[in-house]
Amino acid sequence: MTQPPHDDSTASSPEELREQVEQTRHELGETVDALSARTDVKARAQAKAAEVKDQAAARTGELKGQTLAKAEELKAKAADVAHQVQDKLPDTVKETATQAAEQARVKAVQAGRLWEDKAPEPVRHKTAQGAQLARDNRNLILAVGGAAVVLWLACRRGGKG
Fold first, then answer.
1. Are 140 and 76 within 8 A, CB to CB?
2. pLDDT value at residue 44
3. What are phi and psi of 89, to 5 degrees?
4. Contact 124/115 with Cβ under 8 angstroms?
């Protein structure tokens, strides 16, 4: 047995000695519990994994919100630029684009009729979906086409200078 430290009082009665032993057992139990918790690698790893998972989920939510906001912002900017380009197009370019669009529409109708006669049903169905999507976004497609014509004309004029 070890000697008690000099600053500890020794028990003067058996009852005090029992109380000291009980107190020491209690403190020793708490120390063992604390050491067990520190050495339980599996539980600590699971707790850390849960913490990291929660942090990742929160960060993912933040990034998703930021991405959606940025996409909406870019979509609005693209629409604004398309309108600006369309407003700046000369009337002759708009007329030429309209005529080209009409000719393309006529040719598309002709090709569509030929296609309907020869294509299998599943392919026709997918094609009809694509055509509907193009019709739904007609203004955007025309604006982009107009911008491409303006860019082509600008490049063409730059090459002649």
1. no
2. 78
3. -70, 135
4. yes
- The enclosing H or E element of 155 equals helix 138-160
Q: Which residue has the higher pLDDT, 115 or 58?
A: 58
Cα–Cα distance measured from residue 89 to residue 98, given in angstroms and rounded to the nearest whole number: 12
List pLDDT tens digits, range 62-72.
888 888 888 88
How many Å separate Cα 68 from the centre of its chain?
Answer: 7
DSSP secondary-structure letter at 11? P
pLDDT at res. 138: 84
Instruction: Kindly report the length of the chain.
Output: 161
Distance CA 127, CA 106 (A): 17
pLDDT at 98: 84
Greater pLDDT, 87 or 115: 87
CA distances from residue 90 to 56, 87, 113 in whole angstroms, order as listed: 52, 8, 35
Give 13's DSSP letter.
S
Nearest of 81, 94, 93, 99 to residue 157 by alpha carbon = 93
